[in-house]
Write a structure and sequence with these properties.
Distance between the termini: 5 Å
CATH superfamily: PPM-type phosphatase domain
Number of strands: 10
Order of helices and strands: EEEHHEEEEHHHEEHE
Helix content: 25-40%
Strand content: 25-35%
Structural class: alpha+beta
Strand order of the largest sheet: 1-10-9-6-7
Number of helices: 6
CATH architecture: 4-Layer Sandwich
Largest sheet: 5 strands, antiparallel
C-alpha cells in the first residue's frame, strides 16, 4: 500500500508551532501541546506543553518500520514521565491530573492501518465503498463546558478579572476527567487504559484526514458518523483550508473578546493507493 501525502494546511500566529504534524512514512499524525496550569516553563524557554508535544513527535519520527505504534506511544509516555525532573521540581507524582501533556492522533499504514488517538485531535476515514468513519471526540463535553464558562465570563465583562476562576474550573475538570473520561499523553500510567486504538485493513481505506482540535467546528464532533461525512464533503469543496474556515466561522459566532484570538490548527490528508 502506497501513501500519498495529498495535502497539508495550518493556521498559526507565531513562529513556533502549537500543533505539530508528523510525516515519517509509515507514520503520520498530528500532535498538540496541553500546558499544565500554572506550571513554570523549563530553562530552555519552552512551555511544558511544548515539551510534551516535541517529545512525542521525536519518538514517533524516530520509530522504526517494524515497531508497534502502541508501544511507541507508551514509550513516549514513559519518557515524558522521566523528564519531569528536568522541567520543574514541583512535579513529583505521575498521578497528578495537572501535568503538561500532548493531545494526538497518529496512524501507521502497512498491510493494516493502526490508528491511535487521545484528547481533542481526531480523524476521518473514507472507505473504498463510499462509507465514512470518524473518531470519537472524548473531549466534546469538556470543550463545550469550557467554552460556555469562557463565553459567560466574556459576556459579563469578567473574563480577565475572572481569569483565576476560569483556571480553577479547568483544574477541576482535568482532575475529574484526564485519563478517566478522555486520554492525554502526560506521563500517567492510566494513559494506557484510556488510549483509543483502531485497526483496519489498508485495502479498504481510500483517504484519511487527520486534524487538531479547533481545525473543525466543535459541534461537528458531537456525532462521529456525521462528523466524518461533513469533513470529506467540506474538503472536497475547498480542500483543508475550507475546514479551518468553517471552524473560524463557528468560533466567530461566539461572543467576541479582546482576550481571545482565532485558534491555531493543523490538518493533513493522506490518500492510499494499492
Amino acid at each position: 500500500m502506497r501513501v500519498i501525502f495529498e495535502s497539508y494546511y495550518e493556521q498559526r500566529w507565531t513562529l513556533s508551532r502549537k500543533v505539530q504534524p508528523i510525516d515519517n512514512n509509515p507514520y503520520w499524525g498530528i500532535v498538540g501541546g496541553e500546558r499544565r496550569l500554572s506550571l513554570p516553563g523549563d530553562s530552555s524557554g519552552k512551555s511544558p506543553g511544548r515539551h510534551a508535544q516535541e517529545l512525542v513527535c521525536k519518538k514517533v519520527s524516530r520509530a522504526g518500520e517494524k515497531e508497534v505504534l502502541r508501544d511507541v506511544l507508551i514509550g513516549a509516555n514513559s519518557a515524558l514521565r522521566k523528564s519531569y525532573g528536568q522541567i520543574s521540581n514541583e512535579v513529583a507524582s505521575e498521578t497528578s491530573p495537572h501535568l503538561p501533556a500532548a493531545t494526538f492522533i497518529v496512524v501507521k499504514v502497512g498491510k493494516e492501518i493502526d490508528l491511535l488517538y487521545g484528547g481533542g485531535c481526531g480523524g476521518a476515514l473514507e472507505f473504498t465503498d463510499g462509507v465514512y468513519w470518524g473518531t470519537d471526540n472524548q473531549m466534546f463535553l469538556h470543550e463545550k463546558r469550557k467554552n460556555e464558562v469562557m463565553d459567560l465570563l466574556t459576556e459579563k465583562g469578567e473574563y480577565k478579572k475572572g481569569h483565576s476562576d476560569y483556571f480553577l474550573f479547568l483544574s477541576k475538570e482535568r482532575k475529574e476527567n484526564v485519563n478517566k473520561t478522555y486520554c492525554l499523553l502526560n506521563g500517567q500510567s492510566e494513559f494506557e487504559d484510556t488510549l483509543q486504538e483502531v485497526s483496519l485493513e489498508s485495502s479498504s481505506v481510500k483517504r484519511i484526514i487527520l486534524f487538531s482540535r479547533d481545525a473543525i467546528p466543535l459541534e461537528w464532533t458531537e456525532r462521529q458518523e456525521i462528523m466524518a461525512k461533513k469533513v470529506f464533503e467540506t474538503y472536497d469543496e475547498g480542500g483543508l483550508p475550507s475546514l479551518l474556515k468553517a471552524s473560524e466561522e463557528s468560533f466567530k459566532k461566539r461572543k467576541p473578546s479582546k482576550y481571545r484570538i482565532l485558534p491555531e490548527a493543523t490538518a493533513i490528508c493522506l490518500k492510499l493507493v494499492p
